[in-house]
């Protein structure tokens, strides 16, 4: 029994000794592992400091004009914390500042720099473990800074990252660390051209090799991306240049017929601010700009009715300047090009008007030729009948003969005037150009209207008024416009005609205005077409001839209604070049 007790006691003592031995050695092992962990944290923090903090706090944390030194006794002895009014530990101060940033300048310093937020919990880019590594790296300077009472001595430029670490690090080739630090800074700045030497076969050397490979791939990808971007920019610029200088209007629409793009000619042709209506569908555009109602309705109907998306239509719409005729073409874009639709249109109003004028010119020429030939024999025959028969008839018969003869002669004269108008419209006489003073020409024409009961107000404000023109033809233009204005004022209680001139961009502008009823919508759209008239008497060639004369002088003419009432005819002629 006693033997068993002795054996048990000895066994227990042996077990306690073994546990004591293990415990003593485990403490050493844990301390060794903890030192290794701290060393890795400090090394990782050194890399983070180099890439994120060095530019402000300087190499080895010795400070710059932008931010104070960190490798200094002032931080670790509590004087800087006291100046900032912080009552916690240095470790907490460093961690809190790194994580949450500093929205105000450093207390008690002249540093204007605000520190950004780094911790992910406060919206920054660093994880908690990265913040821990940075704190470990900064706190690593504590013993040395307090012992020396000043910042650590500056190392030569290009010194390896982490060479100021107080902890003993595992053996390794610091050249690879230097290469990685330089490469990290270069890549952060967008420089992918570097390749860094590998001096060693350890893990850091392998990491440097992978880093070089990554840089090459990034460099190739960047070069390909920049090339593609340049090609896209060139293609886009070329397309925009073509569309800008294209005389046709072009609209780009998405799959839902919403406006996606528009060129300058489309805005000018339609007279609507389409650039402000992008992303709107056709119904919204028509609602915002009512004059585009028929235009937008045509686009909607055409793409709905044509399965293949290819169509062509001609429409007539009311614009600010009267009726406008548009030739429209639409097509569906192929799926690979971003899909959607494109609409191209042209204003063919002037083309159709020119065709009508050419046709009417041919009609007028033939009418003038066919009618003029028999007019003179008819007039001579009527006069001869009166002369031969007037003495042979009684008083009643002679009176009847005179009346019939006078009717024939007067109607022949009227037909001759009409034939002359036909001839002038079909083929006017050759222009006899000379330097003319428009103001002087206007005053000469107004001399014929001195006895006119309708007052004519002159407002000759053009600084320059000399043009190269045919005096006879331009006099005919002014006279025709004044006569039209006078006819339009019949029945107006206080009639008034105004002639106004002004100079603009090398041209002289002549306005003939009246305070009558103005032009009707039908007249506005076809006033310059032959045989268009609202008068009970007249051939309807007056404005057509005026337009032809103005265009022969290199100018253009337009009519409109004044907002306050009445009509306005505008003529623009190029000024003569100064010799």
Written account of the structure:
There is one protein chain. With 579 residues, this protein is α+β, with helices and mostly antiparallel strands. The chain has 4 domains: 34-170, Orthogonal Bundle (Cytochrome Bc1 Complex, Chain D, domain 2); 246-347, PAS domain (Beta-Lactamase, 2-Layer Sandwich), CATH 3.30.450; 353-426; 434-574, Heat Shock Protein 90, CATH 3.30.565. The chain is 51% helix and 14% strand. It contains 18 helices and 12 strands. Strands 2-1-5-4-3 form a 5-stranded antiparallel sheet. A 5-stranded mixed sheet has the order 7-9-10-12-11, covered by helices on one side. Strands 6-8 form a two-stranded antiparallel ribbon. Helix 1 (2-52) crosses helix 6 (128-139) and helix 8 (174-188) packs parallel to helix 9 (203-245). The longest helix has 51 residues, at 2-52. Residues 1-15, 17-24 and 150-172 have low confidence and may be disordered.
Feature tags:
about 575 residues, alpha+beta, Beta-Lactamase, five-stranded mixed β-sheet, 12 strands, about 15% strand, disordered N terminus
In short:
The protein is of the alpha+beta class.
Strand order of the largest sheet: 2-1-5-4-3
What do the pLDDT scores average to? 77
Share of residues in strands: 5-15%
Determine the fraction of residues in helical runs and give it as a percent range: 40-55%
Low-confidence spans:
1-15, 17-24, 150-172
CATH architecture of the largest domain: 2-Layer Sandwich
- What's the CATH topology label of the largest domain? Heat Shock Protein 90
Q: Main sheet, how many strands, which sense, barrel?
A: 5 strands, antiparallel
**How large, in whole angstroms, is the Cα Rg?**
49 Å
Instruction: Label the overall shape.
Output: elongated
Number of domains: 4
Give the number of helices.
Answer: 18
Count of distinct strands: 12
In CATH terms, the superfamily of the largest domain is: Histidine kinase-like ATPase, C-terminal domain
Distance between the termini: 146 Å
Q: What string, H for helix and E for strand, traces the elements in order?
A: HHHHHHHHHEEHHHEEEHHEHEEHEEHHEE
């Amino acid at each position: 029994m006693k033997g068993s007790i002795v054996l048990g006691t000895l066994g227990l003592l042996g077990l306690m000794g073994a546990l004591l031995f293990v415990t003593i050695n485990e403490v050493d092992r844990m301390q060794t592992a903890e030192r290794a962990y701290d060393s890795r944290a400090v090394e990782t923090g050194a890399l983070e400091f180099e890439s994120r903090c060095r530019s402000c706090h300087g190499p080895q944390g010795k400070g710059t004009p932008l931010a104070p030194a960190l490798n200094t006794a002032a931080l670790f002895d509590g004087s800087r914390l006291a100046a900032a009014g912080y009552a916690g530990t240095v470790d907490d101060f460093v961690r809190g500042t790194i994580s949450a940033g500093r929205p105000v300048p450093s207390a008690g310093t002249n540093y204007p720099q605000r520190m950004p937020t780094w911790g992910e919990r406060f919206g920054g880019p660093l994880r908690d473990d990265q913040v821990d590594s940075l704190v470990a790296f900064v706190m690593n300077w504590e013993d040395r800074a307090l012992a020396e009472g000043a910042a650590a001595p500056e190392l030569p430029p290009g010194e390896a990252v982490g060479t100021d670490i107080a902890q003993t690090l595992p053996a390794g080739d610091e050249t690879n660390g230097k290469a990685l630090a330089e490469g990290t800074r270069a890549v952060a700045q967008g420089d992918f051209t570097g390749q860094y030497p590998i001096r060693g076969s350890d893990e850091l050397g392998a990491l440097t090799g992978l880093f070089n490979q990554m840089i090459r791939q990034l460099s190739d990808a960047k070069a390909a991306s920049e090339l593609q971007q340049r090609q896209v920019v060139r293609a886009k610029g070329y397309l925009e240049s073509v569309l800008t200088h294209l005389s046709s209007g072009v609209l780009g629409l998405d799959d839902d017929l919403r406006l996606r793009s528009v060129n300058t000619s489309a805005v000018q042709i339609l007279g609507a601010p389409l650039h402000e209506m992008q992303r709107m569908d056709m119904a919204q555009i028509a609602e915002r700009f009512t004059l585009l109602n028929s235009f937008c309705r045509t686009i909607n109907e055409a793409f709905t009715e044509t399965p293949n998306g290819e169509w062509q239509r001609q429409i007539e719409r009311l614009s600010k300047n009267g009726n406008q005729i548009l030739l429209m073409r639409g097509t569906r874009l192929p799926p690979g090009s971003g899909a959607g639709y494109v609409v191209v249109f042209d204003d063919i109003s002037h083309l159709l008007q020119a065709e009508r004028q050419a046709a009417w010119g041919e009609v007028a020429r033939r009418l003038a030729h066919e009618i003029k030939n028999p007019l003179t024999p008819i007039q001579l025959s009527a006069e001869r009948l009166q002369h031969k028969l007037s003495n042979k008839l009684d008083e009643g018969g002679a009176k009847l003969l005179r009346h019939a003869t006078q009717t024939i002669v007067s109607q022949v004269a009227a037909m001759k005037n009409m034939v002359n108008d036909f001839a002038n419209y079909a083929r006017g006489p050759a222009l006899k150009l000379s330097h003319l003073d428009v103001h002087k020409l206007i005053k000469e024409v107004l001399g014929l209207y001195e006895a006119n009961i309708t007052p004519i107000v002159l407002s000759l404000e053009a600084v320059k008024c000399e043009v190269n023109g045919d005096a006879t033809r331009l006099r005919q233009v002014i006279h025709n416009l004044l006569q039209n204005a006078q006819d339009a004022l019949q029945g107006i209680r206080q009639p008034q005609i105004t002639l106004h001139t002004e100079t603009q961009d090398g041209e002289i502008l002549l306005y003939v205005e009246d305070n009558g009823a103005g032009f009707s919508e039908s007249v506005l759209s076809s006033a310059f077409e032959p045989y268009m008239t609202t008068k009970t008497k007249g051939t309807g060639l007056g404005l057509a001839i005026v337009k032809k004369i103005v265009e022969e002088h290199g100018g253009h003419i337009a009519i409109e209604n004044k907002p306050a009432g009445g009509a306005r005819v505008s003529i623009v002629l190029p000024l003569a070049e100064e010799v």
